[in-house]
Design goal:
This protein has about 130 residues and is mostly helical. It folds into two domains: about 60 residues, no CATH class; about 50 residues. It contains six helices and no strands. Helix 4 packs across helix 6. The chain is elongated. The two termini are about 35 Å apart. About 15% of the residues are buried.
Length: about 130
Amino acid sequence: MKLVSTCVPPDFSTLQRCLRCGLRNGRWRRLRVVEKAFYRASMWYAKAGGRIVNGKVVGMLLEIFEKLRASFGAKANQAGLKRAEELASTYSARDVFSWCPRLRVWLKEQGYILYLGVSWMNTSTMFKQPA
């Protein structure tokens, strides 16, 4: 279920729903104090005036929405996609796909992407190459 649409300006009920979700999953406490204060002020403004239509404010709220909704699976999927793109470019440059064509299919499978992401997130920073 998508909590927030990027084309509709957020109103009080949307802000309240995302806050409730963030409180339930524990992401609210991970926000900085400034972000919490900005979110509360936005809720107060939306309750008094309706919708928030300023593009800059909506952009800042969308960043906070993403932080509130972020989960381990989403982070692992994002890291896996990034890692799969890196591997695909490296393997195509070294012509690995010519002798292992099945690898190209693996790099597009959701399960393998999730595996890459989880293994990348669990890799020690000592062994990760700088991007």
